[in-house]
Structure formats: C-alpha cells, structure tokens
Design brief:
Blueprint lengths: L1 H9 L3 H17 L4 H10 L7 H14 L4 H13 L3 H12 L5 H9 L5 H8 L3 H14 L2 H20 L5 H14 L3 H14 L4 H13 L3 H14 L4 H13 L10
Helix pairs in contact: 2-3, 3-4, 4-5, 5-6, 9-10, 9-11, 10-11, 11-12, 12-13, 13-14, 13-15, 14-15
C-alpha cells in the first residue's frame, strides 16, 4: 500500500527509492564496514515498514563502523538533532569538526544560522586555519556582536601562536588581517600584517597585504619597498602594480615596473 501511494504521489520516479533501498542492503551485505550504506538504509528503510528505532540503530551503526569519517558524523548529528537529542548531536558535530574535510564548511553553514558566534566558538573551538570561513558565514547571517566575537577570538589565538613560536603564527596573523580588512579596520590590518612580516618576511602573501595596506593608509615610503618586492616576483599582479603606480604619481616619479 505504501509503494502504491508513493507511485500515485510521485509517479514512476518513486520506483528509484525502492532500487536505492535494495542497493543499499546489497552494499551493506557485501561491505559491512561501509558507513554510508547504513546511512542510506536509514533514509529508505521506511519502505520496509521499519520504525524510527530501526533508523536510530542504522545511524549508530554507521558511526560505529566509521567513527573518523566527518561526513558520517555530520549526518548522524543532524539525525539526532531532528530526533530532539541536542546533546548527542553536539557530541557528533564537535567530533566531526575536529576532522579535516569539506564537511566542516557544511557544518559551519548549517550551525552558524542557529547559534550566536560566542556559543559556536565555545562549542567547536575553531583554529585560525578555518576561522575565516566561520567569519564569512557570520558576516552573512550574524550581527556586529558576532563579528566582534570572532575577531577577538582570532586575536587571542594569533597571540598564543606567536608566544609559543608556532611556525604557523604568521599565517594566523594574515588570517586575522583579512578579517579586519572586511571590517574596514585598517589600523588593525596594519598591526596584524606588520607582525606577520616580522615572522615571515619572505612570504609573498604577507608582504603583498602589508604593502597594499600601507599604501591605503597613505604611508607611501613604507609601502613602496614591499610593493616592489612583490611586483618583482609577480609582475602580472594588477593590484600591486596599480598601488605602486599611485604612490609614484603622488611622489611625482615616473612609474617603473619589471617586464612581464
């Protein structure tokens, strides 16, 4: 009766659900350690008249056989959220967030619309490698207080990385500078890029952002050597070329650029 109703409601494509269910059972039988097969079964087992408890068992089995698969942990967390089990959902999501992969971006997009930045940061404790992605989502969907929370959190992480002589400290300051740049906080951008240049003077990205920020701040004499250094390495960089040309026009010197 269920299959007949599905066919009346959705037409012939409804038969694809039955095939998906059958194939998922075959996949689980042939490869019982395939977590995605159990997730697929959890979505289609209603075709066999299975209860919600059966779906729970299948989702838990997917996590049991693939406890370090971020995609599976993310899907399992969403299942428990829908089943009104927020604590279990949080456990699975925080475990997923600690694992590398594209699922982290999907998790940020999904969760940031439901939680204030303060709660998100406390729950997931993102590092600066992914903080800019968190910032972009809260910039789109959050408020000024959320953005300030993220910037302050990022500064604490960058200072901690520098104090601990973390080799990634320069990139942490660069990430924070990009966040401040989106807030039009030029003084803070310059503070971050200055720290980054001291830590990684041969990094093109660091020197480029620092030179452009100095030019924007009207500090032409300080900006020029950084911009020339960058242009010597990337002659096709139009932003650097235009910024340097503007500085030279202000000083009434003819622009001289390396050949491309």
């Amino acid at each position: 009766a269920l299959h007949q109703w599905l066919e009346r409601a959705f037409g012939k494509p409804a038969k694809l659900l039955v095939q998906a269910d059958r194939h998922a059972w075959q996949a689980a039988a042939l490869s019982p350690l395939s977590g995605h097969a159990y997730l697929q079964l959890a979505q289609t087992c209603f075709l066999r008249g299975r209860s919600a408890e059966t779906i729970d068992v299948l989702v838990d089995q997917a996590v049991r056989v693939r406890p370090y698969d971020g995609d599976i942990l993310l899907a399992a967390g969403d299942h428990h959220r829908l089943r009104q089990r927020p604590q279990r959902a949080e456990e699975l999501w925080t475990a997923a967030f600690r694992l590398p992969g594209d699922h982290r971006l999907r998790l940020i997009t999904m969760v940031c619309r439901q939680l204030p930045a303060r709660v998100f940061l406390d729950m997931f404790k993102p590092d600066l490698a992914i903080l800019y992605d968190v910032w972009r989502q809260y910039r789109a969907y959050g408020g000024a207080a959320d953005q300030k929370e993220i910037a302050d959190y990022g500064r604490r992480l960058a200072v901690e990385a520098q104090d601990q002589a973390d080799p990634r400290a320069a990139m942490h300051w660069l990430t924070l500078a990009r966040i401040y740049q989106q807030q039009d906080r030029l003084a803070d951008v310059l503070d971050c890029t200055d720290r980054a240049v001291r830590l990684a003077p041969q990094d093109f990205r660091v020197r480029r952002l620092h030179g452009l920020a100095l030019g924007e701040a009207g500090r032409a004499e300080e900006a020029e050597p950084h911009l020339r250094w960058c242009l010597a390495r990337q002659p096709a960089d139009r932003d650097v070329e235009q910024s340097l040309a503007a500085i030279l026009r202000l000083s009434e010197r003819p622009p001289t650029f390396p050949r491309r």
